[in-house]
Write a structure and sequence with these properties.
Blueprint lengths: L3 E2 L5 H9 L4 E4 L6 E2 L2 H18 L7 E9 L9 E8 L6 H6 L17 H11 L3 E6 L5 E8 L20
Parallel strand pairs: 2-4
Antiparallel strand pairs: 1-3, 4-5, 5-7, 6-7
Helix pairs in contact: 2-4
Length: 170
């Protein structure tokens, strides 16, 4: 059985975003429990955040947003769900690219900048948790990657649950 994931504020991601020139790094706090391996969830989120930062390298406005929330829709086995979104203002992607994003060895990065395995591995990790990873192009540019994971309907004690940085830096 998986552990309950508690994702804390990750100053490494904030530092990486600042180094890449991200002008705003914001996130929302959520009191919910996702049933998964916290270390592997961190691997998925680190990949998604890294991809978002890479996608914003030439963007005039660089905004990275992380949101975690208890999700009303029931999962495949009727359990509650936790939803985590990673949203960027980068170059986005077209319909043709969207169909290939999760294929092994497909990459939009230049030669030598990626193997095209990060999203495939991330999706497979999330599926091992009985969750799903989706990608949607944002209107006007950018992308939204959404992770859904099995959650717990029981009340969450104060200080527990999925938690991503509370403050916003500008």
């Amino acid at each position: 059985m998986s552990d309950a994931a508690r994702v804390e504020r990750n100053d490494g991601c904030r530092s990486q975003a600042a180094t890449a020139g991200v002008t705003r790094y914001s996130s929302a706090r959520c009191e919910a429990i996702a049933w998964c391996d916290p270390n592997r969830l961190e691997q998925v989120l680190t990949n998604l955040i890294g991809n978002a930062i890479d996608a914003m390298v030439d963007a005039p406005v660089k905004v990275l947003t992380l949101e975690a929330m208890a999700h009303d829709a029931a999962g495949p086995e009727g359990q509650s769900q936790v939803r985590i979104d990673v949203v960027d203002t980068g170059c986005g992607f077209g319909e043709g690219t969207a169909a290939q994003l999760f294929e092994p060895f497909y990459t939009t990065k230049g030669s030598g900048s990626g193997l095209g395995l990060g999203l495939t591995i991330s999706r497979d990790i999330v599926r091992e948790f009985r969750g799903e990873l989706f990608a949607v192009a944002q209107p006007g540019g950018g992308a939204r990657f959404t992770v859904t994971l099995p959650g717990d309907r029981t009340p969450v004690p104060a200080g527990a649950g999925v938690r991503i940085a509370e403050e916003e830096s500008t």
